[in-house]
Every structure is written in structure tokens, then in C-alpha cells.
Amino acid sequence: MSYRKTPAVVVGAVALTLLLGACAGGQADAAQAGRQPAWPGTGLDGFYGQKPAFKPCDPQLPPGVPAVKAECARLKVPLDYRDPKGRQAEIALLRVPARGKDPIGSLVLNPGGPGFPGTGHAALTAAVWAASPVTERFDLVGFDPRGVGASTPALDCYTDAERDRGAKFSSIPAGIDDWTRKETRRLVEQCAERSGGKQVLAHVGTRDAARDMDVLRQALGDDKLTYAGTSYGTRLGAVYAEMFPKKVRALVLDGAMDPLKGTHERRVQQATGMQGSFERMAASCATKQDCPLGTDPGRATKVFQKLLRPLIDKPARTSDGRGLTFEQAVEGVTAAMYSKASWPTAIAGMAELEAGKGDTLLKLRDGYHGRTADGLYPGSLEATLAINCLDEERHTPKQESALNRAWYEAAPFSDPGRPFKQARDGCEQWPVKPTLGYPYATGIEGLPDTLTVSVTGDPITPHEGGINLAKTLGGSLLTVEGEQHGALLTTNACINKAVATYLIDLKSPAEGARCKL
To answer: What whole-number distance in Å separates Cα of residue 457 and Cα of residue 455?
Structure first.
């Protein structure tokens, strides 16, 4: 992933993967499968005994973001924890040492996805929190989860040319270019071929990543884990808490995925949140002159559909000659939902589209995907797809079609208006069954207080999910009034103080605590 972006765009890109992660996985009987001792006596002693050799490195940061002094290393983990003597994976690490002379330990970070690298995220967070007491008391440590970023083997399913041609990551929007059974078979073949084999595809789920994080905790010299995760990072943190409750010191879970809802229910929850965000964007637009969605917010969805649906048959022209398709236009507008500050850009893109041009929305879409100016894509969304194949519930064509219908009913702004006979789950022929299980992270004993941070107007991980996660973990909840996905990188004084107090002093906000963006 390129980190030559503003923090807001990075946060938005992280959240994209929740939208596109329709590839499924998850069996209820696997929910408690991860609770087992990791070491010693399990053949993992050599991995837990590692001391990573950190050396100075120079992380790329967005323009205008101050440089940070970072150091990088690699960590070995077994590809299959049931076979410690077998094939290994290597996890890329980046650490920004604490600024103060009395550090508490390491704060391990995850930016979300799944599929987004944590190394650059740690450097960015260190820059944004340069004056925070958190960076004074903690080493900030980011890692690229197995299969992701600079870790090896890395997940890769599509070429850059295939990405530009509209490579599939989801069954939505159904009715335009649905997966065939042959294509789902080919997806597995090409992901395996480009990623190091089917064994790799079988061991990139969240439970594997949580085990890696415990090896990392020990390698960093911490008796217990201090962790902050955003978006999908809340799932990773919650699963770690389930698997290693006595190894948790503190967890900050920002923009929470709901641990109680299965794939269908959670995605409909997400679609509802996105439609709400679209309608609030439309209401804001309606107060301005020449709003491309009109002056009646109640009709904005129909106006938007009328504007975008012609792109299904004839993409809008763009200055680079690629054109803007219906799917790309929806992605571009969705990208702007992650932060209210981006709404004007999406509205400008819609106005431009009225004149038949798609450059602004295509630029938003490209930022969403991490596409560089020279047409290169990171592997983040390929990793998202593969990880979700192990995490999400595996759908039959009937179930996937039902999900699509429910999605469009909940988020009609994204409906292409085309009939479809059958939608397919891209993961239907994945080489192994899902490994996460639903619900997860329930009934945990011996877990210290956790802190869930949840934004009321979060379109991608709606506030309900944050409430449910906090209750499920028996932890504290900080409610943030605002319109965006996630809140840790907003530099909001109220949020920063609450998070720093919790991480440093293990003192949680009072019940009912609220901040406002």
C-alpha cells in the first residue's frame, strides 16, 4: 500500500475492505477453536524465543507529514501452527521508539482491512501523535499481517492490468458482471499460483494472525499485549482477547466490527449505515446552489441512480482515457463517506458527471484502491479477499443472491437497477473451510477492561457494532459524535486524552463518556 496519502484517505482506504470483503467464511462450531495455550511445550518455543534485529529504516509518509525515526525487522512464524516444523512465513515489522526515558512497553497497531499493512500505519500514527503522551511512553509497533504488504509469502490474485479492467472483489453489484462457477474456480487457482500455493490460502485468517501477534508480543519483550486496532483491527484485537485473555494488558478498538452478527446481518447493517451517510451527504448538498442531487434530499437517491446507471452501458470519459464505470463511480462516492470533510469532493464529482466527465470520481476510486499515477496497485484488496475467505460465512448462490437483494434494499443508492438471476460467493471453491466462527469473542473470562471507540455516524462500522463489541467484551465504550469511519487519527483532544489515559494509566472513561468531532 502506498502511504503517500492524507491520514483521512488512509482511514477511508482501510474501511473500503469491509465493503468489498464479500468473499465468505465462518462456521459457528469454530467459534471457540482458537482457545489453546501457545507455548511452551507446543513446539513453538523457537518462535517465541526470537529477538528481532531492528535496524534503522525510512518509511514513506504522505507529503507534509513530519518524518519519524523508525526501525524495521522481520519475525518468523509457522505457516501452519499445527505443524511448527513445516513451512514458515515472515512478518514485516516497523517500530518507532518511545520519545521518553521511561517507556511502558510496546503499543502494537493495526490499521484494518483486513489486508492493509501496519508498518506504514505505525509510522503515520507516530507522526500524527508526535506530541502525545502515548508516543512518549510507548514504542509504536506496526506489523504487516501474514500475506499482507512486505510480509512473505504475500497474497496476490490479480495483475495491475486486471485491476484496471475491473477485477472482481465482491458479488456486489449483482446483475452487471456476476461471477460464474468457472470464474470462482479460476480465482482460487490464480490466487494460489501468485501467492505461493493453496497452503498459503489456507492459513491467512484472523485466528492465524492473532497467533502471530502473540509471538510478536513475546518477541517485543512484553508480558502482556497493549494494542490499538481500527476497523478490521477491532476484529483482530477481539479474537486475540478470546484466544489469549490472560495476555492482554489493554485494547483500544476503534470503529468496531460487530462480533455478534454473521456475514449477512453485518453487511446489511453496513449497507444501512452507508445509505444513511449518503442521505446526510445529500442533505448537506441540498443547502448549496446547483447541488447535483437536487434540493429535495428525499429524492436524492433516485437522482443519483439516474445519474450513474447510464455508466453501466457507457462509461463516462476521463482525461486518461480509462473511463469511469458504474462500479467505480459508486466506489468513488463511497470513499468520500469515510470523512465528512470529503463530501464536497464527491459532490463536485457528481456535478462533473452531469457534464459527462468522470475524472474526480475516478480519482476518489483510485485513492480507495491505492492505485498510483503510473497504474500500479498494492496487494491490499487481494489480501482482503483471501483473508475474508477464511473469516466470513461461506454462502451458497441462493444465500449470496439473498444478501445482494438485502443490500440493495438497505442501500438503494448503490443499486444498478439490473435484474440478476444468481450471485455467487467468490470464495465458494476455496481450498479450506472458514476458520473464524460466529459469534466470536464471547464469554471471555479473565479479560481486563477494554476500550471501544465508536463514531455515531460511522457508515462502514455502524455505532451499533461498537456498542455490541463493548458489551460482549465487558469493556468500556467511548461514544464519538461525528460523521466518519474511525476516530483515532482525528487529532481530537477529547478522544486523544481518553485514549492516552486508558493506555498509560489503565483508567477508562466514565460510563456514558462522549466526545464530539
So the answer is: 6
What are the grid coordinates assigned to 434, written together?
A: 472458514
Distance, C-alpha 323 to centroid of its chain: 27
CB 269 within 8 A of CB 462: yes
Q: How far apart are CA 257 and CA 238, in angstroms?
A: 10
- Look up residue 208 and give its three cell numbers: 492465524
Q: What is the pLDDT of residues 457-496, one digit of tens each?
A: 999 999 999 999 999 999 999 999 999 999 999 989 999 9
Which one of the listed residues 231, 277, 401, 414 is annotated catalytic?
231
Residue located via cell numbers 464527491? 346
What average pLDDT does the structure give for the chain?
90
Grid look-up 490499521 returns 111
Residue 485 falls in the annotated catalytic set? yes
Cell of 387: 483473508
Longest dimension (CA), the chain: 69
Distance CA 329, CA 491 (A): 30
State yes or no: is 425 an active-site residue: no
Handedness of CA 3, 331, 394, 251 (dihedral sign): positive
Q: How far is Cα 276 from Cα 411, in angstroms, rounded to an integer?
A: 8
CA-nearest of 507, 500, 517 to 140 is 500
Q: Is 401 designated active site?
A: no
Is-contact 190 197, C-beta < 8 A?
A: no
Give the strand pairing for 105-110 and 138-143: parallel
Please work out, in degrees rounded to the nearest 5, the angle formed at the alpha carbon of residue 331 by the alpha carbons of 330 and 334.
85
Q: 26 with 391: CB under 8 angstroms?
A: yes
Residues with Cβ within 8 Å of 129's Cβ and at least 6 positions away in sequence, in order, are 135, 140, 496
Single out the catalytic residue among 121, 203, 463, 485.
485
Please classify residue 422 by burial: count the beta carbons closer than 10 Å to its beta carbon, then call 0-12 exposed, 13-18 middle and 19+ buried: middle
CA pair distance 203, 201, nearest whole angstrom: 6
Cα-based distances in Å from 20 to 221, 270, 298, 353: 36, 11, 27, 24
**pLDDT at residue 416 is higher than 70:** yes
pLDDT single digits (tens) 441-457: 999 999 999 999 999 99
For 451, list phi and psi in degrees, rounded to 5. -125, 115
Task: Find the catalytic residue in 342, 425, 458, 463.
Answer: 458
